[in-house]
């Protein structure tokens, strides 16, 4: 069992007398983490199993009957439901049981899509539940060989309780991260197996998830859309261009993007428009949640060769994904970008409290002050809330490019 950053926080919260809802994309390790933390006598119901799913869909009272048959004791009996979005009525059953006796059961509901729940108006147990999210691995969970021994000044610190993890995932170099992403099963797999596993994720999992929930009427159009969205990952959204390219309506394209957000496999990075500078673009960027999945969904075989062909944009996406995951875990702050109509751009702007942190991403081992010119402009325009910025690059150690700008090695991000 490799260490996960969220494990200690989840373990502490599971002791609280509430319903626990754990969301995240498939293969992010939700079930593995939950099974590692829950007691051996926990009742496990898996709605990914077609027979189990069909039974509960046809007999809505089955879940309550199973739970009431569990022996009562001094400690609550844990009930773990996997892929809970497949049977939304379970949320009402859980509420009925929880309201009748808050100490007899401890429910842990795990889901990989919020689409069906949102569309059916499922009861997410407000006032009765804790909501948790799990993401692909962050840098600290499978650090680079360099970062194992080099403390640093992270842009968004995500500190481990008790120091560094005792059992981190295998250490990778930067090219491996850009080629294969950060899904736990992919990181733990042998290099020769990673491309096929990622292809299966993009083809089998997405098709299974979408077809099972009857979320898309025209599967062929959605496959074309997903490939286009993967290729365009990291760029500003242009619904009109995508609609014309795919041959479906603008509302359908918008619904497709909402779908992959609801399945936790993509997210928007809004434009930062609070600056005094005029002529700012306000269109959000869209990124897929994992670079390995991005390559496979784009119809590419994930490999080091893909990275070496054009590493800069992939490196930029990796930094954005890493910052976004940390902000989501911390529940503190938001990720933006900024671009003017004449092309001046800040790759990412981290907003935490009243502080703005501009971040530029450069595929260079030798950063210069020229790489920081847009950061300095941003700091000047947003003083005093933007005291310092960073150029994330491939330098070996932190470098001061300016009294307000530090070049930061990627492994110290």
Instruction: Provide the domain count.
Output: 2
How many DSSP helices? 16
Strand fraction equals 15-25%
- The SSE order reads HEHEHHEHEHEHHHHHHEEHHHEEEHEEE
Oligomer: single chain
Main sheet properties: 6 strands, mixed
Rounded mean pLDDT is: 90
Task: Return Rg in Å.
Answer: 22 Å
Q: What is the overall silhouette?
A: globular
Uncertain residue segments: none
Distance between the termini: 25 Å
**Strand line-up in the sheet with most strands:** 8-9-10-11-13-12
The helix/strand class is alpha/beta
Q: How much helical structure, as a percent, in the residues?
A: 25-40%
Number of distinct beta strands: 13
Q: What keyword list fits this structure?
A:
alpha/beta; single chain; globular; 16 helices
Describe the structure in your own words:
38% of the residues lie in helices and 17% in strands. By secondary structure, it is of the alpha/beta class. It folds into two domains: 7-133, P-loop containing nucleotide triphosphate hydrolases (Rossmann fold, 3-Layer(aba) Sandwich), CATH 3.40.50.300; 139-412, no CATH class. The model has no long low-confidence stretch (mean pLDDT 90).
